Backbone:
């Protein structure tokens, strides 16, 4: 079972997070438990002084959720299949990028209800992420290295 293999591979990361002392405020943990009561294999990371992310399995799918230090939910990303993308997003992506280079795709929903699609693509010696809107337009983004989440720059 791929989910079990994946979740087992995450366990060393969880232990590393504990060893590095990722202390998540109770208000953030409570907000997470309220929003995702049946989440499994939760791994927390601290992006910066005001932002935490939780990677977890929910409904047999990898998710990453971002919360403020005050417990405000900001964004959730859910891994999806390339073939399940909206046609406009596929068309927009394929105008610029090669499908064979796609490692993963995540559907992101922000606290404002904005939907975007995040593609992890293979480059020569690194992996890069690109973001597309629901209309298939590439978005300009600023990367938060530690958790691979983005905040849009306008």
Residues:
């Amino acid at each position: 079972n791929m989910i079990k293999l994946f979740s087992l591979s995450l366990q060393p990361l969880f232990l590393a997070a504990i060893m590095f002392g990722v202390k998540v405020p109770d208000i953030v943990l409570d907000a997470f438990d309220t929003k995702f009561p049946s989440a499994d294999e939760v791994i927390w990371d601290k992006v910066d002084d005001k932002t935490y992310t939780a990677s977890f399995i929910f409904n047999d799918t990898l998710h990453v959720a971002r919360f403020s230090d005050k417990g405000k939910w900001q964004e959730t990303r859910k891994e999806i299949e390339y073939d399940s993308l909206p046609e406009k997003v596929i068309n927009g992506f394929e105008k610029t990028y090669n499908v064979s280079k796609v490692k993963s795709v995540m559907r992101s929903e922000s606290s404002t209800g904005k939907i975007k699609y995040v593609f992890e693509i293979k480059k020569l010696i690194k992996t890069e992420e690109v973001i597309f809107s629901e209309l298939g337009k590439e978005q300009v983004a600023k990367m938060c290295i530690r958790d691979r989440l983005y905040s849009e720059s306008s």
